[in-house]
Amino acid sequence: MMTTQIQTTALSVNGLTKTYRTGRALDDASFSLPQGAIAALVGANGSGKSTLLSLLAGLLAPDAGTVSVFGDDLGAGTHTHPRVAFLAQRRPLYADMTVRDNLRIVGALNDRWNDDRAREVLDKGRIRLDAKVRTLSEGQRALVGAALALSREPDLLLLDEPLAGLDPLAREDLLRILMADVADRGTTLLMSAHVLSDLEAICDHLVLLEDGCVRLCGGIDDLLADHQFLVGANDVTGPVPAEAVVDERRTDRQATLLVRGETDAAGWDVERPSLEALVIGYLRAGRERS
Ligand SMILES: Nc1ncnc2c1ncn2[C@@H]1O[C@H](COP(=O)(O)OP(=O)(O)OP(=O)(O)O)[C@@H](O)[C@H]1O
């Protein structure tokens, strides 16, 4: 018997726009993520990633556009949603208090709270409850931040550069804990990152921002299948339509084009991009445009 799987939309963003006094940080951004997606949010410095995450977390009010989380509209002002947790880049913890007191305070502030979940995460990270937060390393603090976020049992977890400043082992610990949550609870993750090699193995969706606009988004397998590198001698001009070319590199001898969609590649060698190469192609093209 055939079964039809109906995909629930975890997050739907439409025309989201935010302007600071310094200028427009997010410009008519639209995308959606299915429930259970593990999505990487990438873009150059200043492209709007933190602004987008703060808007989705309901900590900033948009100038225009809508955000819907599991079908609930967040509305126009600053509204947090009980099914959403946000781990901000600066990991807001009470540094002079113990880990236990941090849990107690954040637990008291949230209706949805599972203290056992926090203790489980801290235990996995070998972090003592009576340790003062200020005595913890960067990696340990990241785990405390993750414990606080995961104990709210979010269905959508937003993470702003969760791996920044962590050594490879601490990154692995944090990713393992996040992935266990995804496996246990089907949590949808959207996390910003600069180092894609960390996320390549675990992410299945990508959202790429360029100057506040969503330049690329979708399932990673589909995006990779829809792009190719065409490599040839520098004098190959080939029948590639200009609008298909995302990025073009030329050295004295060789030309490399990143193209989107099926094109006639006669005269070129065709290579499939890795996720990192695809993202770098878009970022480089974006930098040249700006
Ligand atoms: N509170 C603020 N007031 C004024 N301008 C801001 C504020 N926050 C961000 N910006 C500006 O908005 C733009 C987007 O910034 P944002 O921090 O969202 O980008 P980002 O992609 O997260 O950057 P990074 O990768 O460096 O963390 C930048 O030009 C930044 O200078």
TrEMBL record:
InterPro entries: AAA+_ATPase, ABC_transporter-like_ATP-bd, P-loop_NTPase. Keywords: ATP-binding, Nucleotide-binding. It holds the Pfam family ABC_tran. GO terms for molecular function: ATP binding; ATP hydrolysis activity. Residues 11-236 form the ABC transporter domain. Gene3D superfamilies: P-loop containing nucleotide triphosphate hydrolases. It comes from the Bacteria. The keyword Transmembrane helix does not apply. This is ABC-2 type transport system ATP-binding protein. It comes from Saccharopolyspora dendranthemae. The lineage of its organism: Bacteria, Bacillati, Actinomycetota, Actinomycetes, Pseudonocardiales.
